[in-house]
Design goal:
alpha/beta, Nitrilase/N-carbamoyl-D-aminoacid amidohydrolase, seven-stranded mixed beta sheet, six-stranded mixed beta sheet, 17 strands, 29% strand
Length: 282
Amino acid sequence: MSFVAACLQMRSTRSVERNIADFEALAREAVAGGATFLQSPEMSNLVERSRADLFAKISTEDADPFLAAARRLAKEHGVTIHLGSLAIREGDKIANRGFLIGPDGGIVARYDKLHLFDVDLPNGESWRESATYTAGACAVVAPVGDAMLGMGICYDLRFPYLFRAMAEAGADMLSAPACFTKQTGEAHWVVLQRARAIETGSFMISAAQGGTHEDGRETFGHSIIIDPWGRVLAEADDQPGVILAEVDLAKVADARSRIPTMKHTRAISVNVIGGRNREAAE
């Protein structure tokens, strides 16, 4: 089985309505290019640094206009749409939630980001996602035609055990759609994406936010599609746009037969000899 996948690189604004219009325009461009699987970035519906403004502008899942627009578009064109994530109101916090929407417009799967980005970067940026967002409880693998997609989001990319677990559960395509900071993206984005593909013998498909946003943050962009041998099939720059690549599932079996690490996994116990007393140090 093969099909054309598209990453829709966005520069989401502080306006949900404008972001919907931008998403729809990119989606139609991707469909015109032959894509039947479309993926948008993390926080497609809104990029807003102010917690108060973020809460004021987002909706619960059943009332979210971006999700409704994506479902209509998927049904109109008979394509699968993976919304990398939307900010969804969940009580007094927000879910960073990805959605997989089938060609009939139905929601096939939901995934809430597992790993929250609580870091202080060398350039002075400080992020505390756990103050605003609630973490997910489990990984998700869901069907895209004859393929199986493992759904990650952004910071999840740095945790290889998650992608290994999804591949072992049957995923032959993996994803980490993102709103990666420019600083960390320049250092790590491409190498981490390629590593996750190579480690699991899977396609890696990750749409991204790119450029300077209205709230002042800078994101790296470089939406990317990688084959199971680690070859970059398509990569964007930092501008909004569409990248396309063929996903040939036969390449998954080929990569995994060449280097069968999936069959060689062993449970590991660690024997620590000497070294500092970690408990005392903490």
